[in-house]
Amino acid sequence: MSLLSSLQNIFKIPELKNRVLFTLSMLAVYRIGAHIPTPGINSEALSKFLVEKGGAMMGFFDMFSGGALSRVTIFALGIMPYISASIIFQLLTVVIPALGRVAKEGETGRKKIVRYTRYATVVIGAIQSFGIAVGLEGMSGGAFIQNPGWSFRILTMITLTSGTAFLMWLGEQITERGIGNGISLIIFAGIVAQFPNAVLSTLSLVKAGELSIFFVLFLLFIMVAVVGGIIFIERGQRKISVQYAKRVVGKRVFGGQSTHLPLKVNTAGVIPPIFASSIIMFPATVAGFIAIPWVQAIARQLSPGTVLYTVLYVGLIFFFSYFYTAVIFNPVDIAENLQKHGGFIPGIRPGQKTSEYIYRVLTRLTFVGAVYLAAVCVLPEILITRFNVPFYFGGTSLLIAVGVALDTVSQIESHLITRSYEGFLKRGRLRGRRD
């Protein structure tokens, strides 16, 4: 069955069709909002100034906001304050026992954590927007501001914080009523929206003779190779054999079959680079707008391509790879469930020995996954610093785009298969990162 036929099948299922159309309409709203300027700012002149002076750091930050940051629109902060708040509360649930108990209260506890995360998002957004407002007033002597002062600062805080809150709500609506993870899809839409500009700027440089056609073909080959590598690793699994003992209940015999426990090479998915980027962006975004020499020096040290940035970025990717894997995958619980249902790993004693074995295998896989994530995400710095690529495009953006696309396609396939329609692949089902 062709891809076109699979796409046609989507519209044969009313519920799936409505979910897809709702998702697309919400993403269209996001892209429209990304072009609405913040009041009191000469957006066109400021955008040109930021693009010329911002360099790689502005390109990196702008990638996650879909170009809204360089234009200083109402969605300039993007969804990153929400992600920062999510990181904070995921860490606090581990550090603070009381908060950890709330998180384990099922649906009620989850709703409480979500509510706390929303409050923290507003606080973080207000802090970042205030820093941006103060920085804009000091940038070029306030030449880009119509009426500097506290009225402008408060207006900017309200506008940018409201924009982030709206995107947070938009993402939650997509997750609940659309298809795929709403927050990830918003980031995905922002990244994909930058692709046409990158292509046009590259073509213009080729026409001007500043880039050779062979170099462009080399870049295209690198991108295709990276996409292939990402798909290969994201679908990679380590299968642990599991045997179930036979049980006799009355006159019936249960169990005795063999199966496997799939452990993904990259269990954490795209979360580590997103979290790591958010952590680095929080101080660097504010510092980049404040015209104070020592603050500007910090911003330069945290910009892509510097040694400090690379070390911090790689270190945070490793940390969040292990941390997030530990949050979503508990070897002790897996071992207890296996033992409860009469399952065991051949050659490994049930209980503690099984959990230790799963933990050991998962630790090694997580290390491989973290190395893969770090290598892919550092790729743009190599392309920019060594090969003078004229735009920020590469590992992180490709990783998020491909990862979110795989997850979304797998969800669509699940809807199609449950209603006896063939999915996008001719053989077998596309495995998502949570399968």
UniProtKB/TrEMBL annotation:
It is found in: Cell membrane; Membrane. It is a multi-pass membrane protein. PROSITE patterns: SECY_1, SECY_2. Signal peptide: none annotated. The keyword Transmembrane helix applies. The chain crosses the membrane at residues 72-99, 119-138, 150-170, 182-206, 212-233, 274-295, 307-329, 361-383, 389-409. GO terms for cellular component: plasma membrane. The keyword Cell wall biogenesis/degradation does not apply. Its main location: membrane. Keywords: Cell membrane, Membrane, Protein transport, Translocation, Transmembrane, Transmembrane helix, Transport. GO terms for biological process: intracellular protein transmembrane transport; protein targeting; protein transport by the Sec complex. It comes from the Bacteria. The central subunit of the protein translocation channel SecYEG. Consists of two halves formed by TMs 1-5 and 6-10. These two domains form a lateral gate at the front which open onto the bilayer between TMs 2 and 7, and are clamped together by SecE at the back. The channel is closed by both a pore ring composed of hydrophobic SecY resides and a short helix (helix 2A) on the extracellular side of the membrane which forms a plug. The plug probably moves laterally to allow the channel to open. The ring and the pore may move independently. Belongs to the SecY/SEC61-alpha family. PANTHER family: SECY/SEC61-ALPHA FAMILY MEMBER (PTHR10906). Component of the Sec protein translocase complex. Heterotrimer consisting of SecY, SecE and SecG subunits. The heterotrimers can form oligomers, although 1 heterotrimer is thought to be able to translocate proteins. Interacts with the ribosome. Interacts with SecDF, and other proteins may be involved. Interacts with SecA. This is Protein translocase subunit SecY. It comes from Candidatus Nitrobium versatile. The lineage of its organism: Bacteria, Pseudomonadati, Nitrospirota, Nitrospiria, Nitrospirales. The gene is secY.
